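Section handout 9: paired folding examples.
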Amino acid sequence: MTTSHGVKISRAGYGITTNTVEELVFSSGYGTIKIVKEGSGTLVVGAGDTETATVAHSQSFVPMVMVFVELNQGTGRWYHGMSNLPNGATDDGITVSSATYVDDTNLYLTLISSLGSSKTISYKYYMFGDTAEY
């Protein structure tokens, strides 16, 4: 049960004075997941090559990670999650396969290109460090 003070956001049609948790979208009376690290970078993938960016996360556990990639720099078309790119994803003729992996020390972002020339691909990541509490 949430406390009677703090920040609350209710679902449409409900007030914040409700006692039913299901009627709230957010309550500061509960723990929330926090971003503990965020960053961005680029990978230069050579013709037919595989490149991996390795990012140390310095957490005592394997964090949840959200990754976005821009296959064609400057287009503003960011794809959610490298692992969500279907193998053979194409954006303006850029064809790649990808993988994202997190272990107890690092985040690994891997791109495999089938291009005939090298290409620079941008990425952004967010690491979440707390678990939700009830």
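Moving on to protein 2 of 2.
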Amino acid sequence: MKINKIYLDMDGVLVDLVESAVKVLSITEQDVFANPNILDEMGVWDMLGSNIDWWENLLPYEWKDDLINACENIATTYILTAPSKTATGSVTGKLLWIREHCPKMFKESRFIITNQKHLLANSSSLLIDDTSRKVEKFIINGGSAILFPQMYNTKEGNRPFNTARELIGYLQNECSG
């Protein structure tokens, strides 16, 4: 099977959403790792979701460029991100973030914003996402997927890599042409 499209999730893969959220809440990253649903329980999306500036200024992970480059050496790569269901500002903020931090992908319109990631699944597509249910749904619909390693998904049985750097090394060494 030849992969010809790679879809990279934005939040939790390219962007440190957790650090940005805890900065404005009275919790720690460890609170989030101990209870991955805490942001939903605290209503963070209602508080921050419509704030375009918050989404636009999310911090990129230090490995963002290495991950994108490793993927682009394998196949055409897209940012595939879901909008917050209750946050109208998330779409505009994410587009502004992509324009700032991934200008080539923005210029080439290599980004997709949808809550229906599984609709892009096929035998030649690969999704890299930090949410196990999205990974599983993508696979069920005929695509390949890798669960991106994060502290909040360490208990997931289908996580093949322990760190972002380990995944990047795999993509660079094992998958590239």
